[in-house]
Amino acid sequence: MEYSTGNSGQALKDPVSGYVYPQDWVTGCQKPELLPLVVRGLAILTSDGTVLMRGYTTGTTAAAACKAAVLSLQSPVASVTITTPSSIVVEIPVDVTGKGSAECRKYAGDYPDDVTAGILFRAVAAPAPEGITVHAGKGIGRFSYDTPRYAKGEPAIGGPSMACITCSVQEALSITGLPGTLVELLVPEGEQVAKKTLNPRLGIIGGISVLGTTGLVEPWDDHLEETVLSRVRNAPRVVLTTGRTGLRYARLFFPDHEVVLVGSKIGAALAAATGEVTLFGLPGLVLRFINPGILEGSGCRTVEELTTRQQYNPRIRSALDQYKAEYPDLRIVLISRDGILTHDTAHIFV
Q1: C-alpha to C-alpha distance for 318 and 292, rounded to whole angstroms
Q2: What is the spatial distance between Cα 284 and Cα 339, in angstroms, rounded to a whole number?
Q3: The whole model's pTM is what?
Q4: Where are the domains of the chain?
Q5: Residue 237 backbone dihedrals phi, psi, to 5 degrees
Q6: Could you tell me the sign of the dihedral formed by the alpha carbons of 211, 213, 217, 221, in that order?
Q7: CATH code for residues 56-216
Q8: Is 11 helix (H, G, I), strand (E, B) or coil?
Q9: I need a labelling partner for 149 at 20 to 30 A (CA). Which of 202, 204, 216, 234 fits?
Q10: How many C-beta neighbours within 10 Å does residue 243 have?
Q11: Mean pLDDT taken over the chain
């Protein structure tokens, strides 16, 4: 198939980010046989023609293990299909270790610094009279304190990941004809691997988190960083976002801007920008970037926790005012998780 960004051809668009690749990137692709993977969202095309593979998040991997375990109650399987939170369907290899027991190892794609790469998820399923119960077992972290979204003792499983797991198990029930199931999810190496993550600092103990807003792990190396910076550099009006929530709402609030997901590479992106720049997203990464000491003396472990405290607005206003004085041409817009604007350096919201 021929891909084009012109009117006479089919534009090559990333279904995860919505970005339409420039035609010269497509023409310069070093391995054009991999372009179908880019079209499906399983890979990313970079500005120098390199194709980088996306991996699967802990949430997607957990869903695969759970679905395989339920399917194995009827017959063994070698792979399962999972509909990720970004609606992209992937096929993931699994190992059935017995009736009602299955394992899946996390594939990290071309992300070299993924500390959970290759980690094993194990699921054990049993028939139940009705419904779906998923129990987080050994190796999955739990919160040691109440947070704005989780109560103390709850497992560190994100909402999109739990929804993906439940949906995948429901698909398995539909295939097997079973009325319900109880699934225990375990990560044998979870407690040890968690020591390499931020979980201990976040008060999550006993294991790793099961996360994934899109269900896919974004690759990141020098090729991709230069690709991102190239987009930023060439945009007359650019909105820099730090995560998927920001990316989604930025497109709604700034439909006529180039919206670029930069993650934690905020400094490099700001340095590359040549046009009008807006920094947009949830407060966590943004506030820690403009004021690394934002949490000092607050008694909070995270910025999200800080947002529930009385001192939140004074602290954030002080940080924004100071940064705005140093960089008057940069607009900073902060939102809540449900897309409500909370702060804007064009004018301050309460």
Answers
A1: 13
A2: 14
A3: 0.79
A4: 1-53, 56-216, 220-344
A5: -140, 115
A6: negative
A7: 3.30.2110.10
A8: coil
A9: 216
A10: 17
A11: 89
